[in-house]
């Protein structure tokens, strides 16, 4: 009887894993279509956290016009790459304007994000390309959003339009459908295991 129960449990686990493969693959494709913004504050002090938000606003305001010409994640990343020093300078100007002497570092990186729940959509965990801006020591709480498709400062209607243009129907359905919450958790576990071994 114990052998039967073990076999049944193993069969159940394998069934769940195999049923998750198409979903996990689609989630991985989403990370290939999205370019994110990640800002690290100098520290967790209230002042440094407020500064982080001011830098965020300045960077988003500066990059908004740059992204109007981007029609794919690759184009968005290219625009950021070509303007990386200018973006860094804008962030630094905001730091100086607020009376701080922190340095600012801007880079394009590929980094792991956990599942992120926004008001009207969810992004699955995974490795994403991102513009990362570190203020000072970069040891404070971070702030993140999606630069492409442009949802950082868009209205919900514009977010939907941008997401529909950047993602295929299956991917759009995944990020908009709340019923996938438990699947996101399983994908997140897969990603953590994968990143641990890589």
Produce a short descriptive summary.
The chain is built from 7 helices and 6 strands, in the order H-E-H-H-H-E-E-E-E-E-H-H-H.
Order of helices and strands: HEHHHEEEEEHHH
Helicity level, as a percent range?
A: 55-70%
Give the tally of structural domains.
Answer: 1
Distance between the termini: 39 Å
Mean pLDDT: 77
Contiguous low-pLDDT stretches (5 residues minimum) are: 10-14, 16-22
Shape: globular
For the secondary structure, the number of strands is 6
Structural class: alpha+beta
- Taken as a percent bin, the fraction of beta residues is 15-25%
Q: Order of strands in the sheet with the most strands?
A: 2-5-1-6
DSSP helical segment count: 7
Gyration radius from CA atoms, angstroms: 19 Å
User: How many strands, which pairing sense, and closed or not: the largest β-sheet?
Assistant: 4 strands, mixed
